[in-house]
């Protein structure tokens, strides 16, 4: 079972990934967590689709993430990330979630 998820602080962005097999949920970590997000990037996959350079090389990815001001934080910034309107990557051992309609 994966303990990593990605999501978005932007509901309409998250809804664009929903279909018959993928539903919209709200998640929140239980206990310790790590977040990685950028207040400048709504969707990392879309960003890298636009900039190209396939196959992606690690140094190029780091350069792009630095230019987009990605932040890695521990047990902090939950509200800032959740209201950022941007993609959020999160690691935690446990989550609580709620299905959205």
Descriptive overview:
This protein is α+β, with helices and mostly antiparallel strands and 101 residues long. It is 28% helix and 35% strand. The chain has four helices and four strands. It has helices spanning 11-15, 44-51, 58-67, 78-82; strands spanning 4-8, 25-37, 71-74, 87-99. The chain starts with a strand and ends with a strand. The model has no long low-confidence stretch (mean pLDDT 84).
What structural keywords apply?
alpha+beta, 4 helices, 35% strand
Topology:
Blueprint: E1 4-8, H1 11-15, E2 25-37, H2 44-51, H3 58-67, E3 71-74, H4 78-82, E4 87-99
Antiparallel strand pairs: 1-4, 2-3, 2-4
Shape: globular
In DSSP terms, counting alpha (H) and pi (I) runs of 4 or more, how many helices?
4
- Identify the strand order in the major beta sheet: 1-4-2-3
Low-confidence stretches are none
The main β sheet shows up as: 4 strands, antiparallel
Instruction: Provide the gyration radius in Å.
Output: 14 Å
Strand content: 25-35%
Following the backbone from N to C, one meets helices and strands in this order, namely EHEHHEHE
Mean pLDDT: 84
In brief:
This protein has 4 helices and 4 strands.
